[in-house]
């Protein structure tokens, strides 16, 4: 197991380099640059050239990349071009906790909501309940995040006044746990909707699979109550595939948080990603890419380890 | 095997993610006033203007207290007017910093920290005397030394910020005593007041910092200290910037206790925050004006409106053979129903423009050649220019079709709609238009030198309080400047030069009016409309004065009625 984890970590290194090369190439291919944002007759070409020279924006792309990588492996992500002098690491650390909080809470929400519905769907296969759950989950999958978010704000915040409109906490108010939770509910729910559909369907099909197994029949034959059969004997095996799915869902959480953070003014890395992409703030974009990639790699690794924990048949 | 597949899947996912990020859309900078043209540095104008009360006679005395939350879709970058170039940063710099002079609602220069400003007869020597008892937020006195230090920053050879241009005519800056600053010019510069309005920074904090490192100094983001009406309190990245009243401000403590500049990136989300009272003050985009008007009628807020200091235009790339002839450009303007555009797309909220200058300016003169909506005339003029309908109904000349792309930036709904309307209206006279909506940075990269990769564009100019049109229409600005349509008229050039060689306002106005008439005749742009600015605020906000250029004009005089 230990050697497997080490192997996986070593494999992640070339993978991360590949991702950074691709990201660097893509963002450098995007037209424009940080200096083209300055549309002002009093800014002379000379001034802009000085700016570009100072930050090495005129070097060949591979030189820029190598410089960046050289600093990065030493733990230096450089400074923002737009916020001149502010370290990228500081900007990311300001925001990362918010995004992680949102991701963890929405993951938990997605699991808490999807798994029971998936099980109900499986146990009542081809009934009205099953169809209702299926249709609802597909609706959730098909509706865009930003629309659900705005509708929820319109209903719960503007019309009913039950929920805050956005942000992480009430402005100019003392810190309180309840206030933080209150602000977290809607964005976490919206972020969870996208994955709930998939999780529900997976739970349903894998439970159906399990319900048909011989050992389940044995349990029933022993005279156990159906509930006990399902939850004691079936559930653990039924949930194994969900772990894999969860590992693969991580990137979608990061992608989805971009939209949700924007709608709910949630100051996470998604919002920073967007701002930096528009401003062509290359060091910040690259820093965020590395952080996101590392998160995904770690997430996948955890999923694989959990898989082994839950499924004794697996050996690495 | 399983692992291999998974890694592959993951790479694909990561790629898709980065693609999504590289190609994702938003409206950064795509709001109504996105381009600065000779931007007045948004200094807090805190002039000794006469006590002109609002129209309603208020027997109430202003009261102290209250927290005001301002809404913004843009995030600030850094708080140092010599290095920042975005509106959010400028706004906050206006709260924290103060300057020698400012401008009032009719764009006349007012004194702020200067008690007097004397100009020599040849306008070359400017003597400023500071008010008594000026202080920085940390309690240190503000002296002539600080002024010399600050205004000399852009003159330094190591300065790498974007503001050099305003200071080019300054020969020397010196302090003759504690309170007196003498600034000598090398040449006449009618817009030099812009340089004199730059913020004053504390020499006792930044004096020893090499100019090359000033842009990166943590003063700009962690601890900006000025002498303006509000003291920097906290910047929660991506959330808000809070400032609090400065007790020792030279015009007296501001009435408001705190101002919170709240960042809500999504315009729709920001609008809902205005509805729920999570944001108190917001300059509403034209496309949402009618929604907010209903809220005003319901008594939830009030709106103060006025002309914005800007215009929106359709610009033609004169390097393109299609647009070489003046008559063709005039015909194109005849074919666009600008009245209908304002009436339908803007819901009547704006004025049709004919002149490259705002009606708010002292150099505005509407006596220019006008090309009103007249489809028959447009067709006739194009025919006279040799354009005849081809087999597919599209105009042709010498085997070339009259077909071009029309680019504008994403996120500005009104411009996107105009592109569609223009496409339809040009189709009626046999011209094919292909609208292209582009991400802001990519759009600018296409429009700016040296690419000039466009046929026609829809864009807006936020104008300076100084009406000199050289920055946009002088032929010397073609190669590297903002004259990206490559408009060149020697006669107009000469008039623009003359306007910049005198300090006499009537003379200048006369030259500018003549130049603008020539530009209007030549129609390098179809001037579309002058937008209005609508500022939504609490019903009980008093002391507000509408300023076309400064969203938070004289904010230290605002107060909340209890």
Automatic annotation (TrEMBL), chain A:
Membrane disposition: Multi-pass membrane protein
Q: What are the transmembrane regions?
A: 12-30, 100-120, 132-161, 181-202, 238-264, 284-310
Q: Where in the cell is it found?
A: Cell membrane
Q: Which GO terms describe its biological process?
A: transmembrane transport
Its GO CC terms are: plasma membrane
Question: What are the record keywords, sorted?
Answer: Cell membrane, Membrane, Transmembrane, Transmembrane helix, Transport
- Family statement drawn from the similarity comment of this UniProt entry: Belongs to the binding-protein-dependent transport system permease family.
Which protein are we looking at? Diguanylate cyclase
Automatic annotation (TrEMBL), chain B:
A single GO cellular-component term on record: ATP-binding cassette (ABC) transporter complex
GO molecular function list: peptide transmembrane transporter activity
- Keywords on this record? Signal, Transport
Q: What is this protein called?
A: Peptide-binding protein
State the family named in the UniProt similarity comment for this chain. Belongs to the bacterial solute-binding protein 5 family.
Q: Which residue range or ranges hold the Solute-binding protein family domain?
A: 112-470
Query: What are the transmembrane regions?
Result: none
Region Disordered: which residues? 28-66
**Compositional bias annotation for Low complexity:** 30-48
| First and last residue of the signal peptide | 1-22
Q: Which PANTHER family match?
A: OLIGOPEPTIDE-BINDING PROTEIN APPA, PERIPLASMIC BINDING COMPONENT OF ABC TRANSPORTER
- Which GO BP annotation is one of this protein's? peptide transport
Which species is this record about? Sutcliffiella cohnii
Q: Where is there biased composition of kind Acidic residues?
A: 49-59
């Amino acid at each position: 197991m230990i050697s497997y984890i080490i192997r996986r970590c070593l494999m992640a290194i070339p993978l991360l380099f590949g991702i950074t090369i691709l990201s660097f190439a893509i963002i450098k291919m995007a037209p424009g640059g940080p200096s083209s944002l300055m549309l002002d007759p009093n800014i002379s070409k000379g001034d802009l050239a000085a700016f570009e020279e100072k930050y090495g924006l005129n070097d060949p792309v591979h030189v820029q990349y190598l410089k960046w990588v050289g600093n990065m492996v030493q733990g230096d992500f450089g400074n923002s071009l737009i916020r001149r002098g502010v370290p990228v690491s500081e900007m990311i650390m300001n925001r990362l906790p918010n995004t992680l909080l949102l991701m963890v809470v929405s993951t938990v929400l997605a699991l808490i909501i999807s798994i029971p519905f998936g099980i109900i769907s499986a146990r009542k296969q081809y009934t009205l309940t099953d169809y209702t759950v299926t249709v609802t989950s597909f609706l959730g999958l098909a509706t865009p995040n930003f629309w659900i978010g705005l509708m929820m704000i319109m209903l719960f915040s503007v019309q009913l006044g039950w929920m805050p409109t956005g942000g992480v906490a009430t402005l100019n108010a003392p810190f309180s746990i309840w206030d933080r939770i209150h602000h977290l509910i809607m964005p976490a729910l919206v972020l969870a909707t996208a994955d709930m559909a998939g999780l529900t369907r997976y739970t349903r099909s894998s439970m159906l699979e399990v319900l048909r197994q011989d050992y389940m029949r044995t349990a029933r034959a022993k005279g156990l109550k159906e509930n006990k059969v399902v939850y004691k004997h079936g559930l653990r095996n039924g949930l194994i595939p969900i772990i894999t799915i969860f590992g693969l869902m991580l990137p979608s959480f990061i992608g989805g948080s971009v939209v949700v953070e924007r709608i709910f003014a949630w100051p996470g890395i998604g919002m920073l990603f967007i701002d930096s992409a528009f401003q062509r703030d290359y060091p910040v974009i690259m820093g965020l890419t590395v952080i996101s990639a590392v998160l995904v790699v770690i997430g996948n690794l955890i999923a694989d380890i959990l898989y082994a924990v839950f499924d004794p048949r697996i050996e690495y | 095997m399983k692992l291999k597949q998974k890694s592959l899947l993951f790479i694909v996912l990561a790629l898709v993610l980065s693609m999504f990020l590289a190609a994702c859309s938003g409206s950064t900078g795509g709001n109504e006033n996105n381009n600065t043209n000779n931007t007045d540095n948004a200094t807090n104008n805190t002039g000794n203007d006469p006590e002109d009360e609002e129209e309603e006679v208020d027997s109430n005395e202003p009261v102290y207290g209250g927290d005001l939350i301002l809404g913004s879709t843009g995030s600030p970058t850094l708080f140092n007017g010599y290095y920042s170039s975005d509106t959010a940063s400028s706004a906050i710099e206006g709260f924290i910093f103060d300057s020698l002079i400012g401008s009032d609602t009719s764009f006349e220069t007012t004194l702020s920290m200067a008690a007097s400003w004397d100009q020599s007869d040849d306008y070359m020597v400017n003597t400023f005397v500071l008010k008594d008892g000026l202080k920085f937020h940390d309690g240190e006195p503000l002296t002539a030394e600080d002024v010399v230090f600050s205004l000399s920053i852009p003159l330094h050879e190591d300065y790498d910020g974007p503001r050099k241009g305003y200071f080019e005519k300054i020969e020397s800056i010196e302090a003759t005593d504690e309170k007196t600053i003498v600034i000598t010019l090398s040449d006449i510069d009618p817009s030099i007041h812009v340089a004199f309005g730059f913020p004053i920074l504390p020499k006792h904090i930044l004096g020893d910092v090499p100019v090359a490192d000033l842009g990166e100094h943590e003063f700009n983001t962690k601890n900006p200290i000025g002498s303006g009406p509000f003291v920097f309190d906290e910047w929660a990245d991506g959330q808000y910037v809070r400032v609090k009243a400065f007790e020792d401000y030279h015009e007296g403590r501001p009435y408001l206790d705190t101002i919170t500049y709240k960042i809500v990136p999504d315009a729709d989300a920001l609008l809902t925050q205005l509805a729920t009272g999570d944001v108190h003050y917001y300059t509403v985009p034209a496309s949402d004006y009618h929604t907010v008007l209903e809220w005003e009628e319901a008594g939830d807020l009030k709106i103060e409106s006025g002309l914005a200091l800007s215009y929106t235009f359709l610009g033609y790339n004169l390097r393109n053979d299609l647009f070489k002839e003046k008559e063709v450009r005039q015909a194109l303007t005849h074919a666009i129903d600008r009245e209908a555009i304002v009436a339908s797309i803007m819901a009547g909220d704006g004025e049709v423009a004919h002149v490259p200058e705002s009606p708010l300016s002292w150099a505005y003169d509407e006596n220019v050649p006008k090309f009103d909506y007249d489809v028959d005339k447009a067709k006739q003029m194009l025919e006279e220019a040799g354009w005849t309908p081809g087999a597919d109904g599209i105009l042709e000349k010498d085997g070339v079709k009259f077909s071009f792309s029309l680019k504008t930036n994403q996120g500005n709904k009104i411009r996107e709609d105009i592109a569609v309307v223009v496409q339809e209206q040009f189709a009626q006279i046999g011209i094919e238009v292909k609208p292209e909506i582009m991400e802001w940075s990519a759009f600018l990269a296409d429009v700016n030198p040296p690419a000039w990769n466009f046929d026609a564009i829809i864009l807006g100019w936020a104008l300076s309080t100084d009406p000199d049109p050289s920055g946009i229409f002088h032929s010397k600005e073609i190669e590297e400047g903002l004259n990206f349509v490559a408009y060149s008229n020697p006669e107009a050039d000469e008039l623009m030069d003359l306007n910049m060689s005198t300090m006499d306002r009537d003379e200048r106005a006369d030259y500018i009016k003549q130049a603008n008439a020539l530009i209007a005749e030549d129609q390098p742009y179809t001037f579309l409309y002058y937008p209005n600015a609508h500022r939504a605020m609490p019903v009980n906000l008093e002391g507000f004065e509408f300023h076309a250029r400064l969203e938070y004009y004289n904010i230290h005089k605002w107060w909340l009625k209890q």
